[in-house]
Structures are given as C-alpha cells and as structure tokens.
Amino acid sequence: MSFAADKQTIEDLNLLGKYKPQSIYSIFNKVKTLGGERLLDAMFKHPLTDPDIINRRSDIFRYFREKDLVFPFQPAVCRIAEDYLSAVIPGNRIQATFSVFRKKALEAFLRDEQFAAIYSGLEATIEMLAKLAELLRQLDGKPGDPYYEQALQLKNILADPRLFWLSQEKGQQLSAMKVAKYDFILRHSLRHEMEKVLIGIYELDVYTTVGSVAAERHFSFAKALPASQNILRAVALRHPALEKAVGNPVSLHGDKNVLFLTGANMAGKSTFMKSLGIAVYLAHMGFPVAAQNMEFSIRDGVYSSINVADNLNMGYSHFYAEVLRVRQAAEEVSNGKNMVVIFDELFKGTNVKDAFDATLAVTSAFSKYLNCIFVISTHIIEVGEALQDHTNLQFSYLPTLMEGNVPRYPYILTAGITSDRHGMMIIQNEGILEMITGNNNTTTIVR
C-alpha cells in the first residue's frame, strides 16, 4: 500500500514543484546530477509506509549529515558519462574494436565526430569512477553502518580485475587500441555493473544533498513506529520554508486524537497546520523534518482542506467545494484508513449559523475515529465550547497580543480556546471606515 496525498493536499502543503516559490521540493533540490534529480522526484512522489524501510533511509541521511561530505562529481562529467554508458555496444570484441578503428579513420579523413564522442565519454567515465573510488575511501565504513552494504557493492565493482587499469589511465592520453579495449569492457563486459555504478552515484548525490540540507537548516530525523502505536509527537515543529519560524509542540494519540485550533487571522493557524502536514509527509519519505524531535506511527496518508477554491467549470460554489472535500475525507476515514486529516476554517463559505452547526457536527463525527489524527481550526470559538464534553479533543489557540491598538502575533501554541476578538479594531486601524465615509482628516490611523 502506498502513502496517499491527493492533488489538493499536495498544493495546500506546497510539496512539489521544481520552480514553485518556497516549495518543499525546492528546499531539497540541490542535487548535482540529472539522475539524482530523477531519484529525488521519485522519493517525493512515493512516500513509504513501512517503518523499517523509512528508518533505514533516515539512518542513511543522518549518516551522510554527520560525515559532512562534498559530492565530488561534476554535473557535466556525469552527463557525458551517463550518455556514453547508456549506449550499449553490440557484437563481440573483434567487431567492437573494428568499429572504433573505423570511427578513428573517419575522424582523420572526414572530420567525423563519432570517435571524439567515444573518447570524451570514456574519459569522463574514467574520471567519474576515480572520484567514486576516492569518495568510498573517505566513507571508510564498517559493518553495521547504514551505508555499508551499498558502499561494499560499489567497492566490489571497482575492484573487478577487468578494471585494474583505471588508476593508471586517469588523465593519460589514450591510444585507439586502448580506447577500443576499455570501451568494450565498460559498455559490454561490465554493462550491468556500470548501470549499478550510475545508480549508486545518483543515490550518493541525494544522500549528500539531503544530509547537507538537514545540517544547514537544523532539521532532525523522525522515528517511524508501527501503525498500532497510533501516535504523532514533535518538539519545536516549524515550517521548513520560513527562516525565523517559531517552533511548537505537538502530541496526538489515540486518547487525544483531535486538535481543535482557534485564533485570529494572521495568528498563524494555517502555517502551523501546514507545518504539521509537511512534517508528516516528509517523515514518511524518511527525510529530515523541521523539528527538534519527532516520532510518528505510520499512516495511510495525509488529507487537507486549506486552500479550497470554487470551481466555475463544474458550477461549484466555495461552500459546496468545501463540502465535497469533507465528503472525500469521510470516505477515506470510514473505509478504515489511518489518516492525518487537516481542516483549516471549515465551512467559511456559508453563514455563521450553518458554519457553527456543520463544524460542530463534522468534528464530533470525525473524532470517533480514534485510529486517525485530526487537526481542525475555526474562527467560531463557540464550537469549541460546545465540544468540551469530548474527552479525546485537545483545545489550543494561537494568541493575538495587543500593544495599544496594534496586534502582535507570537505564534506560540497555547492550551485552551481563544477569547481574542480584535477584528473590528484592526479594521479601524486601517482607516477603512474613514475612507468610505470621507472623514480621513479627523482620524489617526495606527499602524
């Protein structure tokens, strides 16, 4: 079973997108090779659901963060080597040798570039393999290290007797005979081994990159637990794309599986909820998370309703689009899936009375699915008061502090239900009513 996150959730959390501003993918996309980028894409699109596999990948990333190694391969060299190695030589040694000499002759008489392409590909491959050997020596792993088995496989390939010439030929001018000989070895005799080498280099690209990002941004590695333990805990959880983000604790489990969140606009509710959803997604990838510490039970997926828009083509109003999102979440949850569900400002597309009734009913109904985790926010604080008899709900808010007439937002999660009602004061601070009534000259706007 694969980890589920639909298109709306991916967009809500801004997870994917190479060129999207502040996308989570762009934070980690510092890889140097095209193969490394393909591997990174695959990891982002296919989070894991096996705690052992997740923890194993996390251990490898942590290992490379601690090693603090620089990926030594030049992107251009890797591209040339990959193109060269991907072209398989047909036939036998004699045919391959004849083909190389024929291309050499064509180069001399007709300025044909086929031999030059083989030569540059061979030269790039020799350089790449030499750098790989040096990097593996720097790792100098021992049995039990997270990367030991993968490193040993690559070392065994490089130790093949058919590659004894590598250390001798680096940087040397090669004769046509040597080109033919080495070309046949790399692209015919050791074709499958060279494919494994390329994959190993792409993995090293991702491992060193993710480890470096974790060190630079002070991310930590979450511990994956079996689904049966049903917990989600984090210390100093924050948004990974914000440089000065405030960290907050999270502790949700079977006895307290619903976080009911209140607070004013701009107090940080949406950012907090996105931070949680992003951390859950990255943790299931085995990637580092923006927290001091995190442990989580494996989930079947994460589902959010944060930036739901109307659909003019389908004729859906904003409210109806919200209702459909809740229905989709209900289908997932009622089918027995262990989900993390995030609802930001439920039913804001309808009137206050309907929003109150609907939020109360939906929260009450979802809270009974103790195998799932829910985070639900609302402006309608009276809903929280009506839910006080639900023992499995946690009530938290993000406060607004008034300094005179100016609001300040500390972004610190606080137990309870907010009593903040500063909306009208903010409207007055912006001088909106004075603009409308034309009394600008008599009012001082506080900013």
Automatic annotation (TrEMBL):
Keywords: ATP-binding, DNA-binding, Nucleotide-binding. Residues 256-437 form the DNA mismatch repair proteins mutS family domain. GO terms for biological process: mismatch repair. It holds the Pfam family MutS_III. InterPro entries: DNA_mismatch_repair_MutS_C (IPR000432), DNA_mismatch_repair_MutS_core (IPR007696), DNA_mismatch_repair_MutS_sf (IPR036187), MutS (IPR045076), P-loop_NTPase (IPR027417). One of its GO terms (molecular function) is mismatched DNA binding. This is DNA mismatch repair protein. The lineage of its organism: Bacteria, Pseudomonadati, Bacteroidota, Chitinophagia, Chitinophagales.
